[in-house]
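Researcher: Here's my situation. A collaborator sent me these components and asked whether they could plausibly form a single complex. I don't have experimental data yet, so a predicted model of the whole assembly would be a useful starting point for our discussion.
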Amino acid sequence: MADLRPPIESGAPDPMPYMHPVMKKNYGKWVFHSHPKPGVLYHRAESGDAIWTVKAGTQRQMDTYTIRELSDIADKFGDGYVRFTARSNIEYMVSDEAKVEPLIKALTDAGYPVGGTANSVSMIAHTQGWLHCDIPGTDASGVVKALMDELYEEFIKCEMPNRVKLSTSCCEINCGGQADIAIIVQHTKPPKINHDLVANVCERPAVVARCPVAAIRPALVNGKPSLEVDEKKCICCGACFPPCPPMQINDPEHSKIAIWVGGKNSNARSKPTFHKLVAAGLPNNAPRWPETAEVVKKILRVYKEDGRPWERMIDWIDRIGWPRFFEKTGLPFTKYHIDDWRGSRVNLNASNHIRF
Amino acid sequence: MAKKMYDTPMLDQLESGPWPSFVTGLKRLAKDNDMMVDLMGQLEESYKTKKGFWKGGTVGVFGYGGGVIPRFTELKDENEKPIYPDAAEFHTLRIQPPAGMHYDTKTLRWMCDVWEKHGSGLIAFHGQSGDIMFQGIKTENVQPAFDELNEAGFDLGGAGPALRTSMSCVGAARCEMSCFDEARALRTVINNNLDDMHRPALPYKFKFKFSGCGNDCVNAIQRSDMATIGTWRDNMQVNPELVQAWVAKNGKGELVNQVINMCPTKALSLKKQGTESKADGVVAVAVDGEDCMEIDNHNCVRCMHCLNVIPGGMLPGKDKGVTILVGGKGVLKIGATMGTVVIPFMKLESDEDFEKLNDLARNILDFFAENALEHERTGEMIDRIGLVNFLDGIGLEIDANMVAAPRSNPYVRMDGWEEEVAKAEERKSA
């Protein structure tokens, strides 16, 4: 043990040594911003100092070549400082306006789309998927690449009523998070149990406790301790799968993709909201998921046309009402859209507020 | 030169199109990295079969119980030999980024060097919890890779039932909406409680997130067990020239449509100049030669909408601070829940203020550690025991700002009414 080095428990590093000097100097003293063009932000401080930010999309899962190339661009055309946003966009900060256009050109020439600011469709927040997750129903990076290829023009332009944030999640746990449009795996069949493995791999009481609808109980199968699922109760959520991999929930055919809309993180105008189910049953169609892309584009098309300035997806739907959302998008409204989880009656219409 | 690449017809289809391709990146790495050759082999198999092939395990560094995400391949032949042996171990190191995710290029290049030396060369900026994810490393290289990163000032993040890596918005570094020092708050709360991150022993995960204003750019209310959101309690600041410039450009009609009518509490109104209210907290700003916009600051909920529409024309007030919400979480197990207000306002400026924030965080972590059931998030615990019991437990007074509306059913025993009224009077006079 003597040669093992105890860790230095330093925690989250101080950002100051890594921060653009103008941002450091004016920390906490900004008074104004504007949006000169898509992908570019201008901020002015009390002191009169100004900084321009150029935002570009990345693939998030970056090889060292990409990171060095992005760094080369920062050294050659920027000031050597960057930051990443919560949606894995890269931001270049420069204190000289003259650097903005050459920087945009360098990024664009190297294949990094400049955009993602204000009322554009930003990069899709996403998870790990087949690349690294132990319980994925689909891929993450691939879905995002396929979708962003389709939404490229909406990323580099700012033509939406307000900003649009997207996310994808490769299982129902939804690590991708809430979004204006969220693309999430939805399992449609109960887990297939490998009874030979349960006893050795799973802590059975813990698995029983994970089930949100108490559909799992201990059982003896072929003389071995295992688990069984009441398939009439099972809601196919997959919560039993992480603590017990023999509860195989992923299915190449029956793990489908669902689309949810209207999640809003911001407190602006209405309080924050969670996204709501609008479409499901889409095939997990790697490598380009065209059916999913089609639904996402359809929703965006209608929102772009019908939303008013500053209305986020949910603000727009609140104004026009859900029946019209389904009417305008052509998406079918089914019994599965009617919430029956606990507390769900607050989601029902308890009024005569009906649009004709 | 690495070994020969596998055919990857599915993945190849993700190389075309205008968005940057991660597959092209993987291929570049695979040119001289056997691990990436095999990683691509396994990933192509996932694309073909629509199945994942990783399982977890136990891999860590000396002195810590978490922070490494172990991955072992499940794709094996009939003799239990991995089909893609060079990617049979493909772990991830979660590393905490500088608060606000700022980097200079020297640091980014150095990270590339470290990861090419010890790992696959694949790095994600960032994971959903906010970690830099150094992906793809064999078990034997985990300790040396961590040593090199750690000695240069970087530390492992959280995983499992532990305090998790945190996120703060760009905030004070570049945003006029910022109402507190987000990076300092993050580093105060996280770096004083690292034991709970590095030695996972909580009932389940616990996340702190810090957003400088109600725009909540890091989704703190939706996604964190304790959300710290910037706000202010005096009048918002106005810059009449910028408001007038906006109106001159967009027209008074659009001021009504995009600003006044979209205020959620009708705290804004358009008035003829000279007819403004003189009530306390009401500020009027001339929008042109004849009209003014009246701002009823006491009825403003700091939603940020008008500040977003007229940047610089309307700004947070000077008496800034934070609102604290507790109990936001994702789907498992009861469904997603938002955070709930537990502190409507506290100052966050002096050393003592930050100490108070840290005490509160520690207090909530302790209560969670002692009272949550296994695999129960804070929001679920509050659902189970009720907000009042939670507040009692951490020693906070109730406040009408904690509810969207009072109770709408009579199913509660209320024989302590007189006592509670006395407490309410006491709070009022305090």
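Model: Some features of this prediction you could bring to your collaborator: The longest strand of chain B covers residues 226-232. Chain B has a mean pLDDT of 97.
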